[in-house]
Structure formats: C-alpha cells, structure tokens
Amino acid sequence: MSDLNKRCLDSWHRFMPEYEIKEWNESNSPLGDTYSQRAQAKEYWSKLSNQVRLHALHKEGGVYLDTDVEMIKSLNPLLHHKCFLGFQVEEEQIDWINTAVLGAQPGHEFLKRSMELTQKLFESSGRFPRSPALSTRLLKEMGLEKYGLQEIDEVTIYPVEYFYPYSWNGKFSPDCVKENTYCIHYWEGTWLRKERSRVLERLRMIRGKVRTLVSRRQ
Q1: Interatomic CA distance for residues 189 and 205, integer angstroms
Q2: How many domains does the chain have?
Q3: What residues pair up with 83 in beta bridges, in sequence order?
C-alpha cells in the first residue's frame, strides 16, 4: 500500500471514527460468474473491483471509497440520500460521472441495474466496461441531461467540488478545495497497471451501522 493510500485511510478514521471499515476480497466476494473469472484470469483487478463494490453496497449498504480518496470532513450530512455519487467533470462526456465515491442503501435499484448492465455489456462484447462510462450511460437512460446538483430516481448527483475538486488530468492545489468539498480524489491510477497481489487490496468499504444509516434516511 502506498504512502498516499495510508494517508487516505487514516483520514477515514480521523473524520469518521464511528464508521466500520470493511475490506472485500476473495474470501467474501462473489467471484464465480464469467465476468469475475475472466477479470481474475487477466489480472484486471480494477475491473473486478468495479463489480464487487456494487455487490457489497447492494448487499450491505454504506459508502464505497477508492483508497486514493482523502476525507476532509465527515460524509454524515449526505447519509439521508438513498444513493449518491458525483460528477467528475462539468462538461458532458462519456465519463461524466465517477464512482470512486458511491453511497447507497442496501438493495438500491441503481446498484442492481449497474450490475445487470455490467454483465450485459460484457456478455455482448467480451469487454470490461469502465465504471464511469457505465454509470454515466445508466444515469442518462434514467434522465440525466445536464450538469449540476440533482436527484434522478432516488439517485443524488453532486457537482465536481464535492468529491473531485480537480480533474484527472489536472494538478492538485489547495485552492481547488471549496466549502462544499468533502473529500479529494487523487487519481492515483492504480487501474493502469496490473497488480501483483491477488488480494483486492484497494477495494474497501466504509460503512456505518446499517440501522443508523437507514434511520437517518427515513
């Protein structure tokens, strides 16, 4: 684990000490389907983690964070949403939405539809869909047409400054952190190389107690 990952994980503990941090790996993830088996065979760990994060959230609820996401304040004020994620850029493009920060109640329909679309696209093309492109496509099918804070079928989409205050091809500066910024995604790019470990080390789940999470959303 890189020094950046360690710093980010430390920030999760510091700003959200009441949360449980759960790791999902080969011992507790459903890896028997063709998609997962093919991803493991090719050592496409980021593609495998894309599907496992959806399964984990759908099963237990909570908030998924990539390990290069540093918290700067608690996500508690957002837990009243049934599902939330954010734009990674303002201008419309194929990768408009990102899932490095993704929160949802267990069993949420968006998660189910995301898993189904992942399998459908893989089976029809043999290719592994990118998570941002898949989420963008699905949300457009649900009615997404413009940039900005909005809710579509119980999915809340936040502007870039909330989770992605600087672009993947930009450079971090303290000036990019705004009043509404909850965390900083550092675009570490671990998906660009094959990892040696078979353990899905970068896939972790931050989740509060389910009862607490649900009660805040009622």
Answers
A1: 19
A2: 1
A3: 104
